[in-house]
Fold this sequence. Notes:
Layout: H1 9-32, H2 36-62, E1 66-67, E2 80-81, H3 83-93, H4 100-104, H5 108-116, E3 120-124, H6 128-138, E4 141-146, E5 151-157, E6 160-166, E7 175-179, H7 185-188, E8 191-196, H8 200-207
Parallel strand pairs: 1-2
Antiparallel strand pairs: 3-8, 4-5, 4-8, 5-6, 6-7
Helix pairs in contact: 1-2
Amino acid sequence: MGYCYGQNKGNEYxxxxxxxxxxxxxxxxxxxxxxxxxxxxxxxxxxxxxxxxISKDIFPYWYGTNWDYNGTTRIPKEGxxxxxxxxxxxxxxxxxxxxxxxxxxSASEVFIVKLAHGNIKRFTNRPINEIEKxxxxxxxxxYLVGLDMHVGFLVVESTxxxxxxxxxxxxxxxxxxxxxxxxxxxxxxxxxxxGKLMTDEMIVKWLFNQAYD
Length: 213
C-alpha cells in the first residue's frame, strides 16, 4: 500500500484506513469459506499484512505529531498526542474493536495482557541488551511495550529493532521511530512489559470485529 504524502494527509490517512478495513473483509470471507489448513494460512497472511501495514504505512503518517500529556488528536500531524492515545489510535484505525479512550487512560499492562494473550515477557531492572536479545529470539513482528510511565510499539525486523512512540523526551517532535538503545524512555525505564501482537486469537478477533473490554 505505499502512499505519497501530499497536502491532504488527513484525507490520505482516512483512505488508507478504509482500505485496511476493506482488506479485512476479504480476509474474513476467505477465512469463513476455508478448510482448517486454509484457515491457518489465512491467519498467517492477515498477520503479515497487519505487521506490514502498521509499520510501513500507518506509522509514517504519525511521525512528527507533537507530544502532549493531554494530547488526544485523531488526525496525524494535527494537534498533539499522548503516548497512550497514540497506541490506541493506531490499534483502532487498523480495525481492532477496543475501548480506545478507556485503554489510553489506563496502565498499559491492562491492555497489553489482553491483546498479547499470554505472549508476554516482563523485565525489571534489566539492561537494554537483554531486551534486544529477547526480541531477536522472539522474531519479527509488531510488539507493544509498557514502561514505568510510558507505552509504545516495538518493530522487529531481523536484527533491526525500532521503538515507535509519542516521545515526551522530545515533545516538539513527538511521534518518532528510534533505536531502542538510544536515550529514550524504553532504555531508561526500570520496568518493561512486552507483548507480541497478532496472535491467532488477536487476528480472529480482528477478522470478526470482536470487542475487547
